[in-house]
Amino acid sequence: MKIGILGGTGNMGRGLTVRWALKHNILIGSRTLEKAQATAKELEKIARGFYQSEMKGGIIGKLNADAIKESEVIVVTLPPEAVVSSLTELRQYMNPDQVVVSTVVAMKKRRGLFRCATISAKELGIGEDLSAAEVVQDLVKPTPVVSAFQTVPAAYLSNIDSVLNLDVLIAGDDELAVNIVSKLVRDIPNLRPLRVGPLENSKWIESITPLLLNAAVLNNLQEPSLRVVPWMPASYTA
Questions:
Q1: What is the CATH number of domain 2-219?
Q2: Who is most buried in 41, 82, 116, 146, counting CB within 10 A?
């Protein structure tokens, strides 16, 4: 697939790029073409050095608008404060046949700990109590939005030598879009997609991120994440 990553020069975007490049063509989007191309060149070298002849995809740097127009899936890895202004400008380049993935988490840090926050888009008539993914959906509709990757540490993703062995919680209203994103999660070795219901449930996924960060701060943990473990095997019969 062709996957456009908005904010592709940041940590999450870089991590997803090097992981997906094994099988897919990645278009790194940025407001500055030179920055996008420099990042693409750097990550292409890393990915090809690691995957060698097994690498089937490629990495190209593009302006955000061009990355959107040429992609089947668009991944939003923008900082929360840039989401409304960026997507208000860029949504004109999207179409309903694409899928948008929101990895955005709105947080505030106070007294050394992280707290849940919201993205303000009141001036656009968007509710203040919505999750980041729901704000993204309101901004880009009718293009379907799926929420994913919020609990996957960017540091692990971008370290191509790391074995992840993590679960990715996925929320979305469009069945086809959810299936596409679930397949993309599986395309990253040792990541498991777990569906958690409609897009409105993204608020619960997003709220886990500050909790994990606080667990790291308060318990001296390094990049904690999630793996859902059943208390007994599914095959167990009494």
A1: 3.40.50.720
A2: 146
**DSSP labels for 64-81?**
HHHHHHT-SEEEE---HH
How many CB atoms are located within 10 Å of the residue 211 CB?
14
Query: Where do the domains of the chain lie?
Result: 2-219
Adjacent-strand bridge partners of 170: 195
Query: Tokens 């886990």 identify what position?
Result: 208
Nearest-CA neighbor of 204 among 152, 122, 130? 130
Ranges assigned E (strand) in 2-57: 2-6, 25-30
Q: What is the pLDDT of residues 97-130, one digit of tens each?
A: 999 999 999 999 999 999 999 888 766 667 678 9
The Cα 98–Cα 143 span in angstroms is 6
Nearest to residue 72, comparing CAs of 5, 11, 167, 122?
5
Q: Give the angle subtended at the CA of 103 by the CAs of 60 and 85, to the nearest 5°.
A: 80
Answer whether 0.70 is exceeded by the pTM: yes
Phi/psi of residue 115, nearest 5 degrees = -135, 150
Structure tokens at 41: 């060149």
